[in-house]
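queue> holo job accepted (calcium ion)
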Amino acid sequence: MTSAPAGKSRVEARDSSSRLLALTVAVALTALVAAAVGLTLPVALPADDPFGGPARFGFAVALFALAQLARLRFRAAAGTVSITWGEAALIVCLHQVPSGWLPAATLLGVGLAWTAMSLLGDRRPVLEIVRIASSLAAATALAVSVTTALGQPLLATPTPALALAVVAGAVVYLLASAWLGGVSLTLRNGTSLGAVLLAALRGKLLMFVGNVVVGLVVVALVELDARWLLLLPPPLWLLQQTYRHRLRADQERRSWRAFAEATAALNQLDERGVASAAVAGALSLFEAELVDVDVARGDGRWRRYRGDAGGQIVEREVGVPGPDEADDCGLVRTLTVGDTQVGHLRVRFPRSAPPSDRERDAVAAYGDALAAALHDAATHRELRLVTARSSYEAVHDALTGLVNRAAMLSKGDQALRQLAHDHPVALLLLDINQFKEVNDTLGHAAGDQLLRLTANRLGALARSGDLLGRLGGDEFAVLLTSVPVIGDRAAPMAYALRQAREIAERLAAPTEVAGVRMSVEVAVGVVVADAGTADMTELLRRADIAMYQAKEGGGNVAAYDSTRDAASTDQLALLAELREALATDDQLVLVLQPAVDLATGAPTGVEALIRWRHPRRGWLSPHDFIRPVENSEQLGTFTRYVVDKALGVAAQWAREGLDVPISVNLSARSLLDPRLPAEIADALRRHQVPAHRLVLEITETVVMSELEVIDEVLATLRAMGVQLAVDDFGTGFSSLTFLTRIAVDELKVDRSFVIRMADSPEAAAIVRTTVGLAQELGLRVVAEGVETAEQRSALAELGCTAAQGYHFFKPMPADKIGAVLGTLLDEARPHLFPLRAADDAS
Ligand code: C2E
Ligand code: CA
Ligand code: CA
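queue> job finished
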């Protein structure tokens, strides 16, 4: 039995080699003693022995030598195990040679055979040959002792009892030789004796049985007729081939398993892990002396991972990868994936013979697995970098490097959670005034410069623990978590306001942006809360309100005021609800208020006024919601909705034969929309209402604005035939010049003049002038908000022809208006007919 070494440390090596020497000496002495004793034992050869003693001894030596020369080898745990024909030789010799001579014959035969094999190429140290020979001699001695204790097989006719004795001897020989071989393997490699023994016995079992059978058959044939032995070589040869095949299959299976394990170990996510596993795997898989794995780095440099039989792996940078050509006892495999070269694998074998084809193939396959693993590791590294970069980008604002809104929210919430429930915190929300102007006039590069500068200044002002971020556009936020807790309830707010003012002041320090000297003015909204009472979203919302208060108030800094907040949150909710209301048909309804001719009582027109039948808030008047609607994107939809409803009502009147125009109030902002005339034309067409039946009420301020788009919208509407009325006339502090610019059909005297008319000569004068002006220009005049009979007669006296107000009708639902108009027209008929008659006459 022999083995090839695997890795172990130097101290261990020295230690175990001295123990191996001791074992060798001990076994050699035992063998020598056994041989000597055996040779001196009395011999029971018959006197007429045709061969004679020396011939029989020589035969035994030759047989034992032959049994070794025809050995087979296989790799077992950490070493190579040789299996021989030893047991067959032993059984035959027990029959043919005096048993006492057998230890000596073994010593000699085995020694000669191994020396010959060593000389013929399988180089072995003398000590190893001595150990092998004496181990087997000792095993023979033990086996012989057991057999002879059970029977005397020498030249005896075989019986079952003798066969049993011989088999017992063979078993002892097997166990003893396996044990001695196992011990020496264990001493050399430090592997466990049990594992080696088990592997060796398992590998040997089949051959052992064959050996025993062959031995017994030979003995039987010799007894029967020695000429039968001539038939023996072919079956022996076959047997040998069977053993070899079986061992090779075993070995193949083992090496595939080892290969699979080694390549599986390459499945790692980092380059170092892969390369180290590759070096270790190649060292053991190919029993290599040296393994280099050179890895190509992305930057054109190479890194070499080198491992030697000692198991150490050294890693270093190399300029150029090693030569592609292998030296005569090594192999180099270039590692590529697709067209990309990822590295080299170099394996150097310990012997001088060139690597076999099998080794070449194995190195190639291993190299390919390694290439894939290295490529995967590199890809994974890239991926990690990209992920890291994008997660930085996900939380940071690219322009200023400050955390962005999302990160501000999450980091801020995290900070809030770490504070005690009642620990005060403050959030400052900053918005740069006139940032848009900088962007528009100096360009975006200047805008960016301004933002970076602001971020830098804020960064310099922030204390450790403060969270500073850019929320987007020109908005920045600072979360102050280090608000002092001492003092009364108002102290934190005072502190936060101080901070806010200081920041605003520092930011205002003049600077130069794109060659223009400027100072960064900011509006700061300040909110203070206990950490446990609000999250970042809520704090930002409040700070936002405060910031707008600061802007509106014209100052730099404003504290959050919860009373103003209630209104604004309500408005936000209202707008969301309005969206729903506009989608349904029954929430927003029109009530209608007729205006009547003061002389005849006939309806001159009907004004449509919006009401919101809110599912939760009840009836809402325009006062409750018109403002936010006007300031929202929903105005367009809202206006279309009202016009559509009003024209629906007008269409109904037309069907009932009522010829009365309907007035619709337009918000100033809807006149900024150039699409308005087309939308109204469309609605008129849909309802088949003639344009002159529609009156649009606009306020004086609109008409004054002198915006071209408004003039165009109004001109187009007029050209379509739609009538225009100026609502709330007299309240616009305007000159009347606009009436020369924009043609209108009606003036509505504001209710405030009607109310004050009786006791205010100025109010009365305005009414009178308006009426005069209207007569001059050929316009209708309607007085609004007439509540009493006195007002009515006063208006009549002043020459006003039409009026509207509670005195006549309160606004009423659409289903009532038809009947009211019908009655009004009927009652007015006596007055109207004479007029018609007069017209006809003329
Ligand atoms: P307005 O155009 O001046 O409408 C007249 C307002 O005076 C109406 O209030 C009407 O109900 C009220 N009124 C009528 N007669 C009397 C009276 O004798 N005494 C008193 N105290 N009030 C009287 P309402 O309906 O609350 O509308 C308020 C304002 O809302 C309207 O003022 C108008 O500017 C606006 N508005 C109403 N409907 C719409 C609409 O559909 N669209 C737009 N954009 N605005 C509308
Ligand atoms: Ca009106
Ligand atoms: Ca009005």
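queue> The longest helix spans residues 357-395.
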